[in-house]
Amino acid sequence: MEARRTVRSSSAHNFKSGLTLWLILWLVVMKPGGVSACPRLCVCYPTPMTVSCQSQNLTMVPAGVPYDSQRVFLQNNRITELRADSFGFETQVLWLYGNNITWIEAGAFSNLRILEELDLGDNPSLRHLEGGAFRGLEKLQSLHMHRCKLATLPHDIFHKLYSLQFLYLQENQLHSLQDDLFSDLVNLTHLFLHGNRIRALSENVFRGLVNLDRLLLHDNRIRQVHRRAFRDLGRLTILYLFNNSLAELPGQTMRDTQGIQFLRLNSNPWSCGCESRPLWEWFRKARISSSEVVCSSPSQRRGQDLRFLREMDFAVCPLPDPGSLTGSTTTTFSTKTRWWFSKHKPASSSKSTYQKTSEGVKTLPFSHVKPQYSPKKAAETLPVKYELSEDEAALPKLDPEEYWANYGNEDSSIRCVELDCAPSYDSEAFPSSSSSIITPSPLHLLSFFIVTLLLRLLSS
């Protein structure tokens, strides 16, 4: 009898030990999502997991951010450095704008393998970047570096960023752009370079940007554009070059942008002598929405619009030799009008994404809408120094402020991915607490039930 009691007690002890071990394994393996602690001074939201630590005077990336956080907001703090060990989590969206970042270590973001959006804008002390700063971000789609006072960009700064689609570099202090700087950005569609100090565009500066749709270069100091600078930009639809120092633009430059739809060249000191003939002829054939192109010289044409000069204005100009790639001229002179329009607009090519790797590139869940435009009457926009022909009056005209009025405003709207922002995540109404808001899920309830049952068995 005593032996049976001993065996029974031993069996019960073994059963309870087994249940205890099983319970520990269950809690380790099936750890319910959402139970991770929220970092101090941060607010956390589930589904998708969002960690907001904005405006808390943080001087470094906080520890304890849950590894599976999909969005991490660290904007408007006082973070000064980003090191290779700063990020112990994976996330898709990381906002660091409005800090005091002065240095980014090479490979600082290499652990963020699934990052899709990185915002480093409004860090005015970030004047220099190391070449490997963005190493490993091969799934990055949107990169913001506006208003950082960047003076130069390393030649390999965008190396292997094959998925990048939106690049914001406006309002920095860039004086030049190196050849092949963007050559790996085969899926880039929007490039914002306005508000810098760029003086020239070389032959290979935009090489590789075969899917670029919008290029903003206004408010720079551009004086010279190489005749083949846009040779890879066959899908470009919007080009802004206004408020620069351009006196002329080679005709070949614009012929390479066969898909162009919106063009702004106003507020440049255009020279309308013989050197302007190639651009004038391009305007004769192009059916686009264009700003005015007002002549600054020679004096007899000052104030006129280059687009509406007449054939006789170029009667004494030598024609370019059509067989010459260098633009040398012959002694043949033009004596008759060569004004015509294309009967049909060029068919827009399919914007299928070019794949440089085997991985598919995810499309960002937002797009920019191209505004409609209504031509103004000829008398409102054209000089009246001569009578317009019917063809001249039929040319498309555009109010300089008619489209894309807010294209450069980084703060014009709240940026959310998939339109499911956490409530008031970008407002000052955020509570400064470390509490985490958690909604029980079916997995939580099941785990609670099983743990309760096991504890009851153990206590019996």
Total strands: the figure is 20
Portion of residues within helices: 10-25%
CATH topology of the domain at 174-317: Leucine-rich repeat, LRR (right-handed beta-alpha superhelix)
- Could you describe the largest sheet, including whether it forms a barrel? 12 strands, mixed
Question: Which strands sit side by side, in order, in the main sheet?
Answer: 1-2-3-5-7-8-9-10-12-14-15-17
Q: Number of helical segments?
A: 6
The secondary structure category is alpha/beta
The separation of the N and C termini measures: 23 Å
Strand coverage percent: 5-15%
- Give the class-level CATH name of the domain at 174-317: Alpha Beta
> Which runs of at least 5 residues are low in confidence (pLDDT < 50)?
24-35, 323-388, 395-439
Second-tier CATH architecture of the domain at 174-317:
Alpha-Beta Horseshoe
The shape, in one word, is elongated
Detailed description of the structure:
The chain has 460 residues and is α/β, with parallel strands linked by helices. Among the domains are: 110 residues, Ribonuclease Inhibitor (Leucine-rich repeat, LRR (right-handed beta-alpha superhelix)), CATH 3.80.10; 144 residues, Ribonuclease Inhibitor (Leucine-rich repeat, LRR (right-handed beta-alpha superhelix)). α1 runs antiparallel to α6. The longest helix has 28 residues. The chain starts with a helix and ends with a helix.
